[in-house]
Amino acid sequence: MLIIKNRLFLTIQCYSLDFLLLFYLNMDKWLNACIAIERTINIIKGINFNKKQSKKIAKYIIWFLIFSTLSTTIYDPIYRRLVDDDNDNEKRIWCIISYSKSLEKFNKFIHIFHFIIPFLINILSSIIIILMSTKRRKIIEKDQSYKNLLIEQIQQHRHLLISPIILVILSLPRLIISFISNCMKSNKNPWLSLIGYLISFIPPMLTFIIFVLPSKLYKEQFQKTIKNYGRIMQNRIRFK
Questions:
Q1: Strand runs (DSSP E) across the chain, as ranges?
Q2: How far apart are CA 164 and CA 120, in angstroms?
Q3: Predicted structure pTM score
Q4: Lowest mean pLDDT among 54-63, 165-174, 184-193
Q5: How many Å is the maximal CA-CA distance in the chain?
Q6: Domain enclosing residue 239, as ranges
Q7: How many Å apart are CA 55 and CA 23, to the nearest integer?
């Protein structure tokens, strides 16, 4: 819209901003999926779960996710360029991305892959946790019916089912926009497109609200961490 005229800034923004946002959003989804997998393994193994080994594996997985996510999105800035447009007596600078037909298909596949697979991992892990918890409760409470115990576990772990669904609903507008290969022709009513684009950034901002607050375990751990941090700060003030 020619609001910003600095050519260097526009070039850097064109080549990097969307690419970095896409990378970080995908990383956020996969990290959530990895947490779901670790939580499921913890439930399955119970007291045999090795925290130290899990931390070591997590470090390697994070590096693997960074490499794999970058490798599946690195083509994006390569096909970007700035274009000056003087049509209709309105001078504008566009950030254009042009794909071949084969690359466009690959791009759509990558978007769907990073969108669907983490969601399925979250849902499946939640179902496994509920079923495993129900099975263990059934062993202890033999008098209770399996159906009643299952309903009880669903209510107890409902946040595990609701959270990924909320994340998918909020991320859906960005997926839809990524499949629309056109530009906003007028700067008079940009709010609908802008809100649809920005709403997909809400999930990473609501991680605490969606994952921590609904869970008793995570909430208690958070409160313990805050208390420990408060004690550390008090001790430092005393020593000073």
A1: 80-85, 92-97
A2: 9
A3: 0.75
A4: 184-193
A5: 80
A6: 215-240
A7: 23
User: Does position 2 have pLDDT exceeding 70, yes or no?
Assistant: no
Token code pair at residue 116: 């669907």
Q: Which is more confident, 67 or 55?
A: 67
110: Cβ–Cβ under 8 A, 6 or more apart, which residues?
72, 73
The answer as to whether 210 is a domain residue is no
Number of structural domains, the chain? 2
Classified as helix, coil or strand, 186 is coil
User: In this predicted model, what pLDDT tens digit does every residue of 81-110 receive, in sequence order?
Assistant: 888 877 666 677 888 888 888 988 898 899
- Residue 2 maps to a domain: no
- Compute the mean pLDDT over every residue in the chain, rounded to the nearest whole number: 82
Query: Helices H, strands E: what count in the chain?
Result: 10, 2
Report whether 197 contacts 177 (CB < 8 A).
Answer: yes
DSSP letters along 96-111, please?
A: EE---HHHHHHHHHHH
**Does residue 221 share a domain with residue 188?**
no
Asked whether residue 85 falls in the same domain as residue 160, the answer is yes
The model's pLDDT over 154-178, given as tens digits with 9 standing for 90+, comes to 888 777 788 788 778 877 777 777 7
- Tell me, yes or no, whether 31 and 113 share the same domain: yes
Tokens of 2: 């020619």
Neighbours of 169 (CB within 10 A): 11
